[in-house]
Amino acid sequence: MRRFLAFALALCVTSAVAAAQLLGVDPDRRQVESGRAVAAGAGGQGQQGACFRCHGFDGAAEHAAAFPALAGQSAEYLLAQLEAYASGARANPIMQPIAAAMTPEQRRDVAVYYAAQPLPGGRARPQGDAALLQLGGVLSAIGSAERGIQACQNCHGPGGIGVPPTYPRLAGQPEAYLAATLRAWKTGERPSTAPRMTMAIIARRLTEQDIAAVARYFAAVPAGPVQRARGVLP
What we know:
The chain is an all-alpha fold. The chain contains eleven helices and no strands.
């Protein structure tokens, strides 16, 4: 158990550092400052489309809201989502016009900015039904072989800490957002494109109770240590 915890902590720290990297290069201060300006609404999307209105300037998002926390995610992953929104490959009535209004450089810089933000810590985590949390933990750790459900940690790492640049962090994400995303995979509302075709297959095999359990579990897992990305922010 101690060996596993040490491995999980080491991987978590590594993920947090790697998350700030874009294409293997640490972002410079100009990229971060440009990204912050875009988050404030200076990316052509206007104040109504300013990133901070839903995701916050720190990228932590509101825990009760259905918006994802962006802080500490892989910049590559965040950029890929913005590019998908901008091209229309990923449909969303809110995000599509916002991403399309940005230049490619602005999408890159705002991805770098949010990747560079420290992981949120010290917030109250969802409690409630212990059996539901336990079910979510089981699905995360081992899945369900009889129903063909892969363990979440196979792709997203122990406790959902994320495996940059491809697989995002689930730990500490808002419960409502996680549940809504799984339902979107299940119904086909979210497109099944490589390398995430597996998510649509898994989601279709989840019951509503499974979705509620996984969402509650990952929302209850601490996002990770509070730290700033290497060489980015003072």
